[in-house]
């Protein structure tokens, strides 16, 4: 699933369309809200419901994002964000109940209990066979929030879109 951001009055090809998968969009939009809370409401923008900004609002947001990048605050936000992601606790895999071997009907139908493990995983878990597609045979998974990524280049690309979109809607 992704977010399609459509320019309503684009001045260039850059302002016609911007897309992110949900894993990159939600942190980007949250950051935009932190940078411009006066322009964006808290919930709007996180759904494919046509939310957006008019041309003036898009220009203001673009300028603020570019100023944040130039000041180094976006890079610092990225570093802090990634440190937080790395600190999130891992949890027992729901598909194999933390055993590392998926033995439900799907697991048996796909031959997971007898599947040979990747050498690196085998060394880490102390066995050579028995797989789970939810955790790669480890028995633990990353915290769900660790999947959401934030990176400065994405902010820069969105700012370029904003500068030329003439307003936008999120679908």
What's the arrangement of secondary structure elements?
Blueprint: E1 2-7, E2 17-21, H1 22-35, E3 52-54, H2 55-70, H3 73-87, E4 91-92, H4 105-109, H5 119-125, E5 140-141, H6 152-165, E6 167-170
Antiparallel strand pairs: 1-2, 1-6, 3-6, 4-5
Concise account of the structure shown:
This protein has about 170 residues and is an alpha+beta fold.
Write a concise keyword list for the protein shown above:
171 residues; four-stranded antiparallel β-sheet; 13% strand; 6 strands; single chain; alpha+beta; 2 domains; two-stranded antiparallel sheet
Measured distance between first and last alpha carbons: 11 Å
Estimate what percentage of residues fall within beta strands: 5-15%
Strand order of the largest sheet: 2-1-6-3
Q: Treating each run of at least 4 consecutive H or I residues as one helix, how many helices? A: 6
Q: Mind describing the biggest β-sheet?
A: 4 strands, antiparallel
Q: Evaluate the radius of gyration.
A: 21 Å
**Number of separate domains:** 2
Averaged pLDDT, please?
A: 96
Q: In percent, how helical is the residue content?
A: 40-55%
Structural class: alpha+beta
Shape: elongated
Q: How many strands?
A: 6
* Unreliable segments of 5+ consecutive residues: none
SSE string: EEHEHHEHHEHE
